[in-house]
Amino acid sequence: MAVASTPRVTPALPRTAATPHSSRRRRTRLGRVAVNAVLLAVSVTYVLPLLWMLFASVSDTNSFRLTLPSSLTLDNFDAILNVDTTYRPMLNSLLLCGFATAVTVVVSILCAYPLSRYRSRLRRPFLYTILFSTGLPITAVMIPVYSMFVQVNLIDSMPGTTLFLAASALPFGIWLMKSFMDGVPIVLEEAARIDGASTLQVLWRVVLPLMKPGVVVVTIFTFIGMWGNFFVPFILLLSPEKLPASVSVFTFLSAHDQTQYGQLSAFSIIYSLPVVMLYLLLSRKLGGGFALGGALKG
Q1: For residues 246 and 229, is the Cβ–Cβ distance under 8 A?
Q2: Cα separation of 216 and 239, whole Å?
């Protein structure tokens, strides 16, 4: 006699309050909120000084506090737009930083090419020396540099100061330029050499067109670093008519509470315009990256 089997009924498991997937998404969302809050706080610390500079430049009150101007005025700009205060120092800055940046970029390209393409026993020690030089503070070498400039009669010399600015920016420029140059395939140079191109022709017609973004980055960083350099021209230049804008801004400050904050803010806005314009002019070449697409086909 067969006994009918009764089906087993498995008890239903209790539902958990939250699945691992939902808890993971919640932690990810909380992490994004925390990161955004930190970034917002950092952004506020940068925006507040800019707002103070903008408000103070068009305000008729001479105050260090961040307040909305009661009435807008352009008197601060009228007071600084003259030859002695703005025009001559800005021209001196453009000459110093422009020529020094050009020298730095050209010499960095010529130095980075053999470091990137040729192998030598001295290559690694030389690169380590360059890396050490990038972290050397400029204040540590200014006393011997000042003594050397006095001995060779280069104190208060615009060309001498320009060359020293270029020399002080060379370690960073060479290191950064070599990093960009390493990304250019060497097979393209070999193909150009087979066609009879010389080393300078390969560098000018093959390598540089493919690493334009790298050249632009080195140019922008070098110019910005020189444009804000106060210590070097302050030590090496003595004549007031040769001082750049980074040093002449010191004339607006006073130790007896006589600082003209409105004029200082107006001068700071004009002083920052060349850097902003340089970035806007060269930023188009930064978006596309290296133009290597299709270069290795066939």
Answers
A1: yes
A2: 33
> Quick check: helix, strand or coil at residue 295?
coil
- The CA-based diameter of the chain, rounded to the nearest angstrom, is 123
Q: Give the residue carrying structure tokens 């939902």.
A: 22
Report the alpha-carbon distance of residue 207 to residue 291 in Å, rounded.
11
Give CA–CA dist 49/202, Å, rounded.
48
- pLDDT for 257: 56
Does the model's pTM come out above 0.70? yes
Per-residue pLDDT of 61-75, as tens digits, reads 767 776 777 778 888
- Contact in structure between 252 and 68 (CB atoms under 8 Å): no
d(CA 182, CA 177): 9
pLDDT tens, position by position, 184-201? 888 888 888 888 888 888
The helix (run of H) or strand (run of E) holding residue 128 is helix 123-134
